[in-house]
Design a protein that fits this description.
By secondary structure, the protein is an alpha+beta fold. Helix content is about 20%, strand content about 20%. A hairpin with a 4-residue loop joins strand 4 and strand 5.
Amino acid sequence: MVIKKASDVRSSEITPKGVYLRRREFLQASAVAMAAAGFGAWAGVGEAQTTRTKLKGPIKKSSFSTTEKVNLYEHVTGYNNFYEFGTGKDEPKVNARNFKTTPWTLEVEGEVAKPAKYALEDFIKPYALEERIYRMRCVEAWSMVIPWVGIPLKDVIDRVQPTGKAQFVEFLTLHDVARMPMQRTGVLDWPYIEGLRLDEARHPLALLAVGIYDEVLPPQNGAPIRLVVPWKYGFKGGKSIVKMRFVEKQPRNTWQVMQASEYGFYANVNPNVDHPRWSQARERRLPDLLATTRTQMFNGYAEVASLYSGMDLRKNY
């Protein structure tokens, strides 16, 4: 594998191919959309949101946390994939600065005994918040260590009581062009959709995050509630979730729809299977610029391996 200097890496190598090829079209359309919505020019106008708010209530330190060095707050909040606010890594921090997350409603529907529509504060209230320091790996060969704060997804699932027909959980994210003007473009099919097999969603590592560093989750990181599945590539972490749907058939996640040859349903970190346009064998632990860290199977979370016993993880990528 050839390791390139950061200055030699082209945007076409770190951006999904379909997005890169149509980027000029997206930028032009986005500028018009954001101007119409009162956001000014497409990017770089004004200051990024700087307000930081402590989460209320006690936060339990989790035994699931890694002991690896945590990334700085500035790394985690300044380098993001969140296409609703821009395709560049530095754009969400600026373009999400005015994103309003209150009030927020989260709906649970489908094959469950207790479907309901919750105000977010009521949805979270029955659970104890936990801090979990997780390794997070992006398919684009960069990684961070992030102190998430949230509630175990398993506890939520147990509360709503899936029926015997429920085999998967589908996560739908906010679709609101007034609040997420990039959704006026065709950069992705909106709303953003993700899904997990029910046994994956029940695994104790799966988390619904509402904060980082004991603080309220910033808009660019998926506020006010997002999915965190640390043994999978980052695109499995749906942001700004408004609905959880329990279904019989495997949902088609957004990137699978957009580019199935590159992004599958499972998205388990697997260093033995290259992305069609780059190697997954090594990663850059930001802020390092070179891919010097060897990628671990399941991102180092070997305890999930039993979920995929007997599966061909080259085909089920």
